[in-house]
C-alpha cells in the first residue's frame, strides 16, 4: 500500500508576514487546516532558501536582481518556519531547496510515485510548481485547498483552476 504524505510547502516568515513583498494575505487562514492534516499524516515541511550567488544559474540572477530583499543567507530569520507551525516542523522531515518546485527534494523522502496531500504557500508559485512536477513524475496529488495561500485571492483561484486541469493525477480537496 502506498504511503500518504502531507507536504507543507514553505510555511515561512517571508511568506506569512503581510509586510513582506512576498507575504500572502491568506496565510493565517491556512494554519489550522495544516495543523489538522499534520496531526494525521507523516509530514514533510519544505523551505525555500536562496542559493548562494556563486551557485545560481541562468534566470536566478535576474530573479535576485528583481527581488534583492530576498538575497540573504539561508539561515536568515525570514526563512524560518512560522512560530505557529514550529511544532509541526519539529515533528516533520524538513527539506530545503533553492527552487520554486520542491518535488526533487520531496521525492528523496517519499520515493517515487507517492500519494501526496499538498498545502502551503504560495498556491500560484511554489505549490503549483511542486504539484505539477510531482504529478508529472507519477505521484497522486490532492491539493488541500483550505491549507493553501496564494499571493492574492485571485491568483490563488487561478492556480487552483490550473491544477484542476490535471485530474485525475491532481485533485482539489
Question: What structural keywords apply?
Answer:
alpha/beta, 173 residues, six-stranded parallel beta sheet, 7 helices
User: Mean of the pLDDT scores?
Assistant: 97
Would you identify the CATH architecture? 3-Layer(aba) Sandwich
CATH class: Alpha Beta
**Which structural class fits the helix and strand makeup?**
alpha/beta
The tally of beta strands, per DSSP, is 6
Give the strand line-up of the largest sheet: 3-2-1-4-5-6
**What is the terminal separation in angstroms?**
21 Å
CATH fold annotation: Rossmann fold
Counted up, domains total 1
Low-confidence stretches: none
What percent of the residues sit in helical stretches (DSSP H or I)?
25-40%
Biggest pleated sheet:
6 strands, parallel
Count of helical regions: 7
Radius of gyration: 15 Å
Order of helix and strand elements from N to C terminus: EHHEHHEHEHEHE
CATH superfamily: Isochorismatase-like
Shape designation: globular
Strand content: 15-25%
Protein architecture, described:
This is Isochorismatase-like domain-containing protein. By secondary structure, the protein is of the alpha/beta class. The protein has one domain: 3-Layer(aba) Sandwich (Rossmann fold), CATH 3.40.50.850. It contains seven helices and six strands; from the N terminus they run E-H-H-E-H-H-E-H-E-H-E-H-E. The chain has helices at residues 13-16, 31-38, 60-66, 86-91, 103-110, 123-136, 153-164, and strands spanning 4-9, 43-48, 93-97, 115-121, 140-149, 170-172. It has a six-stranded parallel β-sheet. Helix 6 packs parallel to helix 7 (153-164). It is globular and about 45 Å long. The model has no long low-confidence stretch (mean pLDDT 97).
Amino acid at each position: 500500500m502506498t504511503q500518504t504524505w502531507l507536504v507543507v510547502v514553505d510555511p515561512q516568515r517571508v511568506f506569512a508576514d503581510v509586510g513582506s513583498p512576498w507575504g500572502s494575505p491568506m496565510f493565517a487562514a491556512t494554519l489550522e487546516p495544516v495543523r489538522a492534516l499534520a496531526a494525521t499524516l507523516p509530514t514533510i515541511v519544505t523551505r525555500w532558501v536562496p542559493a548562494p550567488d556563486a551557485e545560481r544559474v541562468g534566470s536566478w540572477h535576474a530573479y535576485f536582481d528583481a527581488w534583492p530583499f530576498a538575497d540573504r543567507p539561508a539561515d536568515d530569520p525570514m526563512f524560518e518556519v512560522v512560530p505557529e507551525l514550529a511544532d509541526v516542523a519539529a515533528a516533520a522531515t524538513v527539506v530545503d531547496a533553492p527552487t520554486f518546485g520542491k518535488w526533487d527534494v520531496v521525492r528523496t523522502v517519499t520515493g517515487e510515485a507517492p500519494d501526496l496531500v499538498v498545502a502551503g504557500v504560495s498556491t500560484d508559485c511554489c505549490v503549483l510548481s511542486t504539484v505539477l512536477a510531482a504529478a508529472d513524475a507519477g505521484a497522486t496529488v490532492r491539493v488541500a485547498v483550505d491549507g493553501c495561500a496564494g499571493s492574492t485571492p485571485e491568483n490563488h483561484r487561478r492556480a487552483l483552476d490550473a491544477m484542476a486541469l490535471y485530474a485525475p493525477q491532481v485533485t482539489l480537496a
